[in-house]
Structure prediction request, 421 residues.
Amino acid sequence: MDKEIIKKSYQLAKAQYADLGIDTDKVIEQMNDVVISLHCWQTDDVGGFEKEGAELGGGGIQATGNYPGKAKTITQMRDDLDKVMSLLPGRQRLSLHAIYGEFGGKLVDRDQIEVKHFQGWIDWAKKRKIGLDFNCTCFSHPLSDDGYTLSSKNPKIRKFWIEHNKRCRSIAAEMGKQLGTPSVHNLWIPDGSKDTPVDRAGIRKLLKKSLDEIFSVKYPKKYLKDSVESKLFGIGSEAMVVGSHDFYMGYAVKNNTLITLDNGHFHPTEQVGDKISSILLYIDEILLHLTRGVRWDSDHVVTFNDDILLIAQEIIRGKFLSRVNIGLDFFDASLNRIGAYVIGTRSAQMAFMFAMLEPYQTLLKFEENGRTFERLSFLELMKTKPFGAVWDYYCMKENVPVGQDYIEEIVKYETGVLNKR
Ligand code: RNT
Ligand code: ZN
Prediction:
């Protein structure tokens, strides 16, 4: 896009927003505080590097499609991540799953993983001055095949996954220590049942017991932040998910952990944006898994939709940015994965910028004076303001492709790199 046009458009936009009491330069500066943790698993459909050709298996989550160009090695994955970051304004982090270690061609089972398998990633992150987050991988494994891991009635299975989680937390803490920014460890398990269980109580008690054991090892908050992720249902766990929202809300409040809100994990009419102001009254910080639910399915590429927008607005309105860790969680194998990555991340960033460009004080005044008609008018009017001009200018200032220019870059990468894999 033509730089002069971008600059001129920005000047006009700036004047229009200034008229409403909004300082667009300040908003651009504030965008520095929106740090998004890129989910590594978008590059290879949650396959991982435990063995060659590893694929996502079970756990109630699926990646559909076989678009060419999936990352098959760590080098390819790192190339992809560098490409993605080169097309994104602002700062990012990287969120790794435990199956993405450098295992040197040997089978290292999940209860055997160590820091050394992730030192390469830590060094990689150090060079790029970015933080790392971490996730236990309690799916795609023979010991999760019967649908239960930490809540299994089989003590051997529980022991295996407890050990895995303990190791994951210690790896995450080391990442935080070496990189000088706390690592968020997200615990998600697929445990649940397709049909009606009769011992929900006993099963949930076992999950609580396993978690207590995992979290009995303490780490300084400056190295590690623990989070637990709930879900309403998954494929094959329609009748009960052991780690429901009620379960983890209770657990997080009582044990002072973070809670992960994945906006694909609730009833379709439930809004994660509405939950933030309640949860942050009782919990210090949350982790977001931004995604797009479509009907009963989750994990579609994030778009700039009402769902994401309300989440961003609630965070900005409540001044909660410093208490919210922003992660992404989508995996779609039916389109260019790098393209999907960039669209999803940019759309999340756009939502935050849009939220920052809201005349909050004006809206608040209307609200407090019972002027709900004016409040709604302004909320609608803001949709017609030249938000795109501010976004484009921000991208230009950050030296990344502006507007549709990133599409060409991705097509070039597809032809030159992805199609040759
Ligand atoms: C699954 C959870 C979980 C996973 C990732 C891969 O429903 O959302 O966060 O998607 O860990
Ligand atoms: Zn998630």
Q: What stands out?
A: Residues 155-179 form the longest helix (25 residues). The mean pLDDT is 97. Residues 229, 262, 289, 329 surround zinc ion (ligand 2) (CB under 6 Å).
